[in-house]
Amino acid sequence: MIDQGPGELLGLRWEDLDLVGGIAGIRRTLQRTNSSGLTALPTKTQSSERRIALPTPCLRSLEQHLSRQLQEREAADESWQNSGYVFTRPNGAPIEGTTLTRHFTALLRRARLRRIRFHDLRHSTATLLLEQGVELVVIKELLGHAHIGVTAGAYAHVRLRLQRQAIDTLGNALSPTDDGPDAPPAAAVVR
Q1: Which of 103, 148, 157, 182 yields a CA-CA distance of 20 to 30 A from 79?
Q2: What residues does 30 pair with on adjacent strands?
Q3: Do 130 and 162 meet the contact criterion of CB atoms below 8 Å apart?
Q4: 180 DSSP 8-state letter
Q5: Letter string b/e over residues 32-63, b meaning 16 or more CB atoms within 10 A of that residue's CB
Q6: Cα separation of 12 and 62, whole Å?
Q7: What is the Cα–Cα distance from 147 to 136, expressed in whole angstroms?
Q8: Which of 126, 157, 154 is nearest to 52 (CA)?
Q9: How far apart are CA 120 and CA 122, in angstroms?
Q10: Terminal Cα distance for the chain, rounded
Q11: What is the DSSP string of 36-70?
Q12: pTM for this one?
């Protein structure tokens, strides 16, 4: 089974990105296997293979990253490994998931943030999208879940909190106001 680490990110190749259109094609995952070492594998499920829109700041970062990678390629000269991956070592070789995790942990430590798993970034994104009112089906597609039930189950705690906020908002709208007995109702029931 494919782990839930940074494999999809590390499996991105430049050919998977449309920087003009702002789209990334998630087509593979990069994983270390016992038999073949660091290997590109198919995504976990057919739904995991998907196209996702990229935000403008991400596109700008990728353009800058491409420029840096071209400089690294020039500096490496003949020792450059033309792997085609977006995220590589300075010599063009693919990056191990454990290496990315180690660097991520060091960044968290330097920023004095609590330690989280790299995969928690995915959960945080989905939670923030839910809290902003993005439909569950859109979040399912972004995450590459095979069934909406997987997404709904994973984020049930967020949905319950949002339900509580919605009910509280409704209660406030239906509560009597202190405007006096002759004031018009704050909300009317429409049938």
Answers
A1: 103
A2: 40
A3: yes
A4: -
A5: eeeeeeeebeebbeeebbbeeebeeeebeebe
A6: 12
A7: 11
A8: 126
A9: 5
A10: 53
A11: TEEEEEE-SSGGGSEEEE--HHHHHHHHHHHHHHH
A12: 0.77
Write the single-letter amino acid at 164. R
Tokens (6 digits) for 39: 């290997």
Q: Tens of pLDDT along 47-88?
A: 789 999 999 999 999 999 999 999 999 999 999 999 999 999
Enter the DSSP assignment of 85: B
Please state, in angstroms and rounded to a whole number, the distance separating the CA atoms of residues 80 and 69: 11
Q: Mind listing the pLDDT tens digit for each residue in 6-58?
A: 999 999 999 999 999 999 999 999 999 899 889 999 988 887 899 999 999 99
Pick the closest to residue 3 from 31, 25, 27 (CA basis): 31
- 130, 155 in Cβ contact below 8 A? yes
Residue-wise pLDDT for 93-148, tens only, equals 999 999 999 999 999 999 999 999 999 998 999 999 988 989 999 999 999 888 88
